[in-house]
Known about the structure:
With 430 residues, the protein is of the alpha/beta class. 22% of the residues lie in helices and 29% in strands. It has two domains: 3-157, Spore Coat Polysaccharide Biosynthesis Protein SpsA, Chain A (Alpha-Beta Complex), CATH 3.90.550.10; 162-429, UDP N-Acetylglucosamine Acyltransferase, domain 1 (3 Solenoid). The protein is built from ten helices and 36 strands. Strand 2 (29-30) and strand 3 form a beta hairpin.
Amino acid sequence: MSLIIYLFEDHTYPNFYPLTYNRPVCELLFGINKLREKVARHFPEAEIRLLCRDYLKVLLEEKTGLKVNSVSASERDRALFLNGRVVPDHALKSKINLSQLKSYWKKEFLVATVVFGKEIENQARRLLLGLKLKPEANKVYADQDMPSQKIDCRMVNYLWDLVSDNSDQIIDDIHNLKPRFASKKEKRHPGLDKQAVIYNPANLYLGKNSKLEAFVVLNAENGPIYIDDGCRIQAFTRIEGPAYIGKNTRLFSAQISGGCSFGPECRLGGEIQQSIFQGHSNKYHQGFIGHSYLGEWVNLGAGTFNSDLKNNYSDITVTFPDKSIDTGRNKIGSFVGDQAKTGIGTLLNTGSYLGLGCNIFGGGMIRAKFIPSFGWGSIEGLQEYDRDKFIQTAAVVMQRRGVELSDSEKEVLKKIFSLTKTEREAFLQS
């Protein structure tokens, strides 16, 4: 009997704004790969499909090559509907009985359901309906005639969960992947300069066609360092493990503390501490980013610094478009949406939220901890970014890296511009 895994969005996706305006939670980088990729690794026998907001369907199909919101089933099929916020591990597979009709819950949240035959289509419709109803979602999820069971598993609830737990996740991912680390008897990697310094080389993985210049320091004493294929690490860069450097990323005399994950094609310099960059983002110059999560195609101007600790060491509150959340943590940096930009000398407050496509310039302390998506301006005042000019700029930015802004992505950006208009108006009137 074939197994199809439907990774579904639940109604909590706004807790991961601004990163989830244009992607579901399962597409977020955590450790050395995305949550969806971890599911595929733990269930290699399954076909993976996605259930998410309608406006993301075409773009996600384009980016992942998977079927999205497409449900078809025969009497011989079985399906595991798995919440996209789940962080899978070896124990999860043993806790879910794939041969029995059942739903699995963690507190009030639906974790998974196992369904067979034609009931698969009904379950998919129920989950998509719950996604639209939001506050009533749990009632919709629970309204099904099947046995239920409580389950203990890892689920992420906010972006700062990913940031705080990233060090451990890097270690777990590398343990599960079992990459072949160099042994003491082997010759040095051909891309590793003789004057590069490595502490605990048995904890270093260096991918194909990667190059590290002289005077690079890699300290893997506190955790592994995984440098993926095609990376370039410039002289006087120091990397402390656990760390993941994504494919074709370049580091320019950077100081990287433990707990960092960088997706593909980033260009990074200055100091970065326990932060995640989704990919294709720039922080070439001196500055500091700590305990933060940044989306794709972000550009931070020279001298951009963020605060990640209050002077009184108290817990930090993060403001979203419709609410404020006490994180219960005293180390929280910034959360920056895709295609956001900061000008030179920008200073970001503790727990700052920079929405998708915002453009902040002029330097100085940005006292507002919440900047709405497509906000444009300086500390003297913000206005709404012209939508068409934004899309033109986004296309130029991506083209510089050899990536075309597709028609489907343009449509998603236009949709998000419309969806976030209320939050901009509320901000501008405050």
